[in-house]
Write a structure and sequence with these properties.
Layout (H helix, E strand, L loop, with lengths): L2 E8 L6 H9 L17 E6 L3 E7 L10 H12 L6 E6 L10 H8 L4 E5 L7 H12 L6 E4 L8 H11 L17 H17 L8 E11 L4 E11 L2 H8 L4 H18 L3 E9 L7 H7 L4
Parallel strand pairs: 1-3, 1-4, 4-5, 5-6, 8-9
Antiparallel strand pairs: 2-3, 7-8
The structure holds guanosine-5'-diphosphate and magnesium ion.
């Protein structure tokens, strides 16, 4: 009998949600960086084998104090994933801290969805610390199961995975079995470019910069077949635009080359990529911009 269901991973930025998801998917699905809040969308990875389909969501970080409209929207995304799941993974780590009154804590108490406590990064702490952490969380909530794991070292992950499979309800797959993600290719393209911006420019360009894929076309001629992509990088200051472009365009050229390689690998097709940089003041507080980027549902 086939089983299928939804698993939502909830937790602060940096606790290792994407790392776990990637281990579970055995394939690089979402973007991992050392900077918090790079996973801003609700990405679904879909695991398939002959008898199971698990739809995972890698939730945006639950941010403590929204500073901008954008972060408020991100929080809305994060909270909506408490519903409609067959299993909720609450993920934390020894260096992860919660403030009293954080909404996620209240929602954990109220949800009727079965919840697993996942203590990640146990490779960085001793057994006593892990036991204390488990006791601490158990004093607040009744978890259905508890898994100390190291997503990075792939320890404890298999046991968690097996338990998730067991918990799935019987039913047909929700998505075609050869589909690994229901997010559009455009989204992954923008994420690949953004990851390359973070890599190339480090602190100079903040994670708040946004990449918009303006056009995405499959082109086929007698002699050539490729994908033509035009993307705009929106930044909030002129100085950031100069940094992105670099001396005589050297920086953006390098960014374009690296991004193109990543996109070609992802799409398994030749790519022609054009990058543009636009300055938009205060775009983070502009509702219509936010909607067009998909932060508002
Ligand atoms: P997310 O923001 O919750 O998606 O977290 P990421 O998966 O992006 O991980 C944040 C950072 O923690 C990255 O530098 C990971 O390499 C690191 N990390 C994730 N899992 C582990 C783990 O099990 N052990 C250790 N030591 N580091 C981890
Ligand atoms: Mg992440």
């Amino acid at each position: 009998m086939h089983k299928s269901g939804f698993v939502n991973i909830i937790g602060h930025p940096n606790v290792g949600k994407s790392t776990l998801l990637n281990q579970l998917m055995k394939e690089k699905m979402s973007i991992i960086t050392h900077k918090p809040q790079t996973t801003r969308h609700r990405i679904f990875g879909i695991y398939n084998d002959d008898d199971h389909q698990i739809v995972f969501s890698d939730t945006p970080g639950l941010i403590k104090k929204p500073a901008y409209k954008m972060q408020e929207s991100m929080n809305k995304f994060a909270h909506s994933s408490f519903e409609d799941a067959d299993v909720l993974l609450f993920m934390t780590a020894p260096d992860d801290e919660y403030e009293e009154g954080e909404r996620v804590l209240k929602m954990l108490a109220e949800t009727s969805v079965p919840k697993f406590l996942v203590i990640n990064k146990i490779d960085k702490s001793n057994q006593k610390e892990v036991e204390q952490l488990i006791k601490y969380w158990q004093s607040f909530y009744e978890f259905d199961m508890i898994f100390p794991i190291s997503a990075l070292e792939n320890a404890g992950v298999e046991a968690l995975f097996e338990e998730l499979k067991k918990r799935l309800p019987e039913g047909p797959p929700f998505y075609p079995k050869d589909q690994i993600s229901d997010k559009s290719e455009r989204f992954f393209v923008s994420e690949i470019i953004r990851e390359n911006i973070l890599k190339q420019f480090k602190q100079e360009i903040p994670y708040s910069c946004e990449v918009e894929v303006e056009s995405f076309k499959h082109v086929q001629t007698d002699r050539k077949k490729f994908v033509s992509i035009r993307a705009v990088i929106h930044v909030s200051r002129k100085s950031q635009k100069s940094i992105l472009i670099g001396k005589q365009g050297s920086a953006i050229k390098r960014l374009g080359t690296e991004s193109r390689k990543g996109i070609e690998k992802f799409l398994q097709e030749k790519v022609f990529l054009e990058l543009f940089v636009k300055v938009k003041e205060n775009w983070r507080d502009d509702e219509s911009m936010l909607r067009s980027f998909g932060y508002e549902q």
